[in-house]
Structures are given as C-alpha cells and as structure tokens.
Design brief:
about 800 residues; alpha/beta; Rossmann fold; 5 domains; 6-stranded antiparallel sheet; 6-stranded mixed sheet
C-alpha cells in the first residue's frame, strides 16, 4: 500500500481511539502486505514501523503533438493532424464517414491496444479495423510532449501485413534513448484510472451499464484500491478460518451418523460419550473425544464398557494343577500326622512340650514347688539342669512328630491362600450385558473355604468347588473377550476416522479463535474506507455538479448529489436528481441528450485530476442528441476544461464549432474531408490567430457597426491575434527546452500585457518589454512596430486609421512571428 495511505489509516486508527485494540495490528498488517496478515496471526512477524509521510509526487504531464495515421479504419494513405501541445481546445470536424473518428480510435488503440467502440461487441466489429484501400502496413504514431523533456517522445503502434488487430507492435522512442515498449511511458495504471479517451459509444453506455459499472469507472481515481485489497486480505483470512470450521462441521456429519449406528448397534459407551461431546448445537468437547480415542480412564466405575470387558476377560480363576497339589499336600500331611499318633515319638513330643512350659515357669518364678504334681521344693537349680538335659533328649526323639504337624500346618496355609473373595469385575457383568451369576455363585462357594481349619474338610472343599468355578469363570472370560472384540471391531474404523477428524477440528478451533479479531479489523477498515471515499470524492462531486450546471441549459433536471456507495457486489454510484423539485431517477426521466451531458459531467473530473499524467483529453462525438442550448453549455464546459488541458474533440455536428465561434471561445478547428480511396485531407479552418483575424476583418467590413465602436473592437481582435501568436511561440520555445508545461502556462498567465507577452515570446524574458518595439522595427521594418503599437493602444484609445490595413498588417506580422 502507498505509504501515505498507510499513514492515513494509522492516523484514523489513532484519532478514532482504537489503536490499542488487539485487532488494530491486523489492520496495519493488511495495509502493509496481504501476506503479513497470516504472519501476524501466526505470531511469526509484526508490521514494520510506519515512516513519515512522503511528499506526494505528481506525475509528469503529457500533451499530444502531431498525430500520424495510415492504413487504419477509414484512413488510407498517411495523413497527419498537426496537434499543438499545450492547453487549449481543438475541434476536428467532418461529416460522418469522413474518417475523423478514425483519428480518435487510432489514438485510443495506440495507447491501450483496443477501443471501446468494439471491445464489448462481437468479433465482426473488429474485423474492419484495417483500411481496405491501403496496401502497406498499418501504423499509428503520435508525438508526446512530456514535462522535463526538451524533445517529444514518439509513440508508435504498427501492424505487419495480414496481422490481426491484437498482433501489433507498440514502441516508445524517448529522446536520446533506444526504442522501448509502451510500458516505458508508465501509463498502465493511469490509463485505467484516468482514461483520457471518451468515445460516443462509451458516452452512451457509461450510465446504461448500471451503477456498478459506473462505480468501477470512478472508484480507481480515489486511490483506495489498496484499502480494498487490504479488506480482501482480511476477508480471505477470516473466511479461510470460517471455512475450516465449516469443513470440519461438514466432515463431522457422516461421523456422527457412524457414531449413532455404532452406539445403537453395539451399545458401545465410547460412541455414546463421543456423541455427547460432539452433539449438534453445542461447543465441541474435544478433550472428552480425545480421552475416548486414546482409551479413556481405566476406572471401570467411570462406565468404561470396554475396560470392564477387558478386566472380565482377564480374570484369574484357580489353577487346577495348584488345587490338585494343595489337596494332595493336605491329605498327605494328615496321613503323616496320623502315622505318628500314639507312638513314643508322639509321647516324647508331648512330654517335651510340657517340660518346656515348666522350664519357662521356673525361669519366670524361680525355685519352688512343682506346679504340676505339687512336690515341695521340686523346682531348683539341680532340677533345671536335669530337666534341660532331658528336654534335649525328648526333642531329638520327637522330631518326626513335629515335622508331620508342621507339614500339616503349611499345607493348610497354602490351600487357604488359593482361596480369594470374588473379584469386583464380577459385579459389573450386568453393566456390559453379561450373565455373571454362575461364575459369581461358584466363586462365592469357593470363597467359603477361606475359613476352614480342618485339613480333610479343606481338601474336600477344594476338590468339590474348584471344577465348577474354573468352568464358570472360563466361560465368562470367553464371552467377555468375544464381546470386547466385537465392540473393538465396530469401534476401530470409527475411532480411526475420529482421530483424523480430531486433528482437523483442533486446527479449526485454533483458527476460529482469531475470527472475532479479524472481523473487527475488517469492519473498521470498511468504515474507514467509506470515510476516505467520501472525503476524496467530495471535490470530484463538486466538479460534476458544477459541470452539469453548465451543461443542463434549460433542463428541468437538477443534479443534487453524486455518491459512491457499497463495495463488492453492492457497489454503486447514486445519482440524485430532482425534476422541478421532485425526486427522480436519472435513467428513468432524462432524455438521451441529458444522459450524455451527465456522462460527460462524470467523465471530465475523473480525466482531469491532478494525479493524472494526461494533460490531454480525446472526446469523440459528444454533441449527438443534444439540443442547441445544451450545445452552448458543452462549448462552455470545453472552454473551462481547456484552460489547463489539451481538449481534442471530434464531431460531425456543425453546431459545436458554430457555438465556439459565436461564444468567442478560443479554439483551433481542423476540417476533415475524405476523398476517393480513403484519401484524407486535413485543413486548418480556424485557429486562435486566424479566427481573431477573421472576426476583425468581418467587423471592419460591417457598415452597421458604429465607427467609434469599430475603432476599438477591431484593434481588440487584432491584439487577440498577436497574443495567440505570442502564446504559441512561447509554448513551442519553452517546451523545446524541457520546461514543464505547468511552468510554461504560469509564465504565460503572469505576462498580463501585450508587451510582456511579446518580450517573453521574443526574448524569453518578460522584463525586456522595452526592447520589443526596436526588435520589430529592426527585424521586419517600421511597419511591424507600428502594427504592434496600434494593436496595443487601439483597444483603449481607438484607432483612427484604415481598419482593413490594420487587419492585413496584423496578419502579416503574425505569420512572420509563427515562421520565425
């Protein structure tokens, strides 16, 4: 975006108090570069700091010089229109079919490569572009006088024999430079924004194309295209994010259907949980979705169906081999205990046990009576020595009995350790649709053995309950595994699709978070654009209304306002009019002539903006459908525009040159005549010098004009003829030095007397007015000095000599000046 426009946006952000808003950086980024929006949103970049306001650069103005055409449209052999570069009105007049419009079309094609005459029409309209009577290559050439260049730049477009219209070669030859392409003029964008050509077709269709087409013609001159591009960058950023959400939402629809089918077909709680997390009309709970996809909580109490099934499928039932070993160990241990029962070994073991208890009593209470038999003083030191020796003998004798009893205790412990309470997973069977009652009942019976101390009973319990338990548990485990596999088979493809969609959804949600920021930036920039558009179009609007006032001559239609509104598909130009005070629609009530006048009012301000490099306008046949009074208005409008623009008008209607003559508007008039075989003749029928002399000669011959009036008026026209000659000399000489056109016109306007104008023309120094008379006398003779003085003084003091001689002398001097 243009730096000054960026600064204008930044200033508006500041003045509207929103510069600190989070979204304002997006406005600045969009104005800097379309790609910067994504960089800022992604956090990888920030807009560059704004520089100070740059000075507005005005383009180098360009005027047209001689135009040469051959073999194009109605023009056969080479012919030249000797256009004079500089402000002023030029009329090129010829009847329909004379070839005059071919010059206008040639200029348009020279610089644009096409013509509005046939651009939107069928191919047949283009086929007649090459002249039928010209055997050589077609060519259009124009001299372009550009500010700051002492010599003209020559623009040329030519076609080889048999080449199509589009197969031309366009070149530009600037002074002291090699030929280059037409782009060397740097007019590509300007030809769209400030198009200096207006054909009759375009004049008639400008309003008929509708409000949006007229908007497209006017909007570029405001220089706000970059804001539209910035808005587009923001809109693209917003829409791309909204589209991610829309796409994710659309992609979810078939997945939701699959989830419903899975939930209904398998009763899979994961499917139900995902449906709840992604239900329509609510925010997506992607965390819940992810937890289901990665397995979710392992706590069965959380209702994880697949987890319950997996736990049931992995239940550990009693091991038959271990049960058999435990039962065998119990029975063997019982047999061993029974084998030592009633033997000396058992008695030794029992005696040893009693003796151990008495020794423990003696250790605790000291010497005394025997606690068993009551013998007095039986327990003493001697007794203890004898008893400890006896205990050792008894223990050695009781080892077999002790070992049998220890093995029995160990066998009971091992057997009881095999018995556990029913696992919690059995209580969840109903939740997953399994019948766990047989296994639970069998396990309950099995668990009752945990408290048995009797070895034979415990062995019998193991042998009686284990087979039923193992069978019931294995059956339940198989059913749980089958159900889990069935659920997994149904869930797996859905889970894969959901996993892929989850990544898409997370990206969409991340992107969606920035949508409100982007929308706020977009809304503000659109509002700012409307403000800038109103401000920049204001001066143009005023010019349109002012020009319409000149053109509306005796029309009941009053142009109240012209506004540019909307954007994109709603863009339009609103033309507000009233008819005798009542509101109306321009297209509905205006005559064709009024519509042409309105179109011209809209075209001229656009084409004459200071930002345009074109100091020339080319208008083809603007008079058609205009009534006589409106033609006078057109002449006044052209006069106004021609004060600082080169206005070239092609017309077949004699009313326009007649109005120009009658209203005494300075103009150069060329007549165009077509001879046989497309031979075109150009003659100068009027220029400011000859026209003034013609008017002077006519007044001098008018008998009805009072003599005292004629003595002042005729010298006045003679003076005007010399002024026109001096002005032409000044423009030719100064432009050849490379002086800017604007500076040339300023110098002319500052030379307010005939003498200073002559000094500027002759010496290029308006301060040398005292040398003018001597110059004329010395160079041409005394008669020339006399003519100059009579033209200078006559309009004020009156001229008492022969008026016809004065006119002839003025004509002679003017001719000598222009050939010098």
């Amino acid at each position: 975006m243009d730096e000054n426009l960026q600064l204008a946006v930044h200033k508006e952000l500041t003045e509207s108090g929103v510069l600190d808003e989070d979204w304002s950086v997006l406005v600045i980024a969009a104005c800097e570069d379309a790609g910067m929006v994504e960089d800022v949103l992604g956090g990888s970049a920030a807009p560059a700091p704004l520089l100070e306001e740059a000075a507005e650069l005005r383009p180098k103005g360009a005027y047209l010089g001689p135009l040469t055409v051959q073999g194009f449209r109605g023009i056969g052999d080479e012919v030249t229109v000797d256009l004079q570069p500089g402000p002023g009105l030029t009329l090129i007049v010829g009847r329909n079919g004379s070839g005059k419009s071919s010059f206008a079309e040639a200029l348009e094609v020279l610089f644009t490569g096409d013509s509005k005459r046939w651009a939107t029409r069928t191919k047949v309209w283009k086929e007649g572009w090459r002249n039928l009577h010209h055997a050589r290559a077609a060519q259009v050439q124009a001299h372009v006088f550009i500010d700051g260049r002492p010599s003209p730049t020559v623009a040329k477009r030519q076609w080889a024999d048999e080449a199509a219209l589009e197969e031309s070669t366009a070149t530009v030859k600037a002074p002291s430079k090699s030929p280059a392409g037409l782009e060397a003029l740097e007019w590509t964008e300007a030809l769209t924004a400030y198009r200096p050509f207006l054909s009759y077709n375009e004049l008639g269709s400008m309003l008929e194309g509708g409000p949006s087409q007229l908007y497209d013609a006017l909007a570029p001159i405001l220089g706000l295209e970059d804001i539209s591009l910035a808005q587009k960058a923001l809109a693209v950023a917003r829409q791309s994010r909204e589209n991610l959400r829309k796409q994710a939402k659309n992609d979810l629809l078939p997945l939701l259907e699959k989830l419903r089918e899975t939930s209904e077909g398998t009763n899979d709680e994961r499917a139900r949980a995902c449906l709840d997390a992604l239900g329509e009309g609510q925010a997506w709970d992607l965390e819940v979705l992810e937890s289901q996809l990665v397995g979710g909580p392992k706590d069965p109490g959380a209702g994880q169906q697949i987890s319950i099934l997996q736990q049931i499928a992995t239940l550990v039932a009693p091991n038959p081999a271990q049960i058999k070993d435990a039962s065998t160990s119990l029975r063997n241990a019982v047999a061993n205990v029974e084998a030592v029962a009633g033997t000396e070994t058992e008695r030794a073991s029992e005696t040893a046990s009693i003796l151990e208890e008495v020794l423990a009593f003696h250790a605790a209470h000291g010497d005394g009576d025997c606690p068993v038999c009551g013998s007095a003083d039986a327990l003493g030191a001697g007794w203890r020595t004898r008893s400890e020796a006896q205990l050792g003998e008894l223990r050695q004798a009781a080892q077999a009995a002790d070992r049998a009893h220890e093995e029995l205790r160990s066998a009971i412990t091992v057997a009881r350790d095999l018995i556990h309470a029913p696992p919690a997973a059995l209580t969840w069977c109903d939740e997953v649709g399994l019948d766990g009652a047989p296994a639970a009942q069998a396990w309950g019976e099995w668990a009752k053995g945990k408290g048995l101390q009797n070895a034979p009973a415990l062995a019998a319990h193991l042998e009686d309950t284990a087979p039923a338990l193992c069978s019931a548990v294995e059956e339940l485990k198989k059913r749980a595994a089958d159900e889990a596999e069935r659920l997994q088979d149904a869930w797996r493809p859905v889970a894969l699709d959901l996993t892929e969609w989850l990544g898409e959804a997370r990206e969409a949600e991340r992107a969606r978070a920035n949508v409100p920021l982007i929308a706020s930036a977009e809304k503000w920039l659109k509002k700012a654009e409307n403000k800038f558009r109103t401000e920049r179009f204001g001066p143009i609007r005023d010019q349109v209304i002012e020009l319409w006032k000149l053109l509306r001559q005796q029309s009941n239609v009053r142009l109240e306002d012209v506004t540019l509104t909307g954007s994109a598909t709603r863009r339009a130009v609103d033309v507000a009019i009233t008819i005798d005070g009542a509101d109306g629609s321009a297209l509905g009530v205006m005559s064709q002539g009024e519509l042409h006048a309105l179109a011209l009012s809209l075209f001229l301000p656009r084409a004459t903006l200071p930002q345009s490099p074109f100091r020339f306008l080319v208008i083809d046949d603007p008079v058609q459908s205009m009534d006589p009074s409106r033609v006078d208005g057109l002449a006044r409008v052209l006069e106004k525009v021609a004060r600082d623009r080169q206005v070239i008008v092609f017309t077949h209607d004699d009313r326009l040159p007649e109005a120009v003559r009658r209203l005494n508007i300075p103009a150069t008039v060329f007549g165009v005549t077509r001879r046989e075989n497309s031979v075109i003749e150009i003659r100068t029928s009027q220029d400011p010098v000859t026209r003034s002399l013609k008017d002077a000669r006519s007044l001098a011959a008018t008998q009805e004009l009072p003599a005292n009036v004629a003595r002042r008026v005729v010298p006045g026209f003679c003076r005007a003829a010399l002024e026109a000659a001096f002005i032409r000399m000044i423009r030719t000489q100064r432009l050849a030095k490379g002086i800017a056109h604007a500076d040339v016109e300023d110098a002319i306007n500052e030379s307010t007397t005939l003498t200073t104008l002559a000094a500027l023309a002759i010496f290029d120094d308006k301060s040398r007015g005292g040398d003018v008379l001597a110059h004329f006398n010395n160079k041409y003779g005394r008669w020339a000095g006399d003519v100059f003085m009579r033209c200078k003084e006559g309009p004020h003091q009156g001229f008492g000599g022969n008026l016809h001689d004065l006119v002839n002398g003025t004509e002679n001097l003017a001719r000598k000046l222009l050939v010098t």
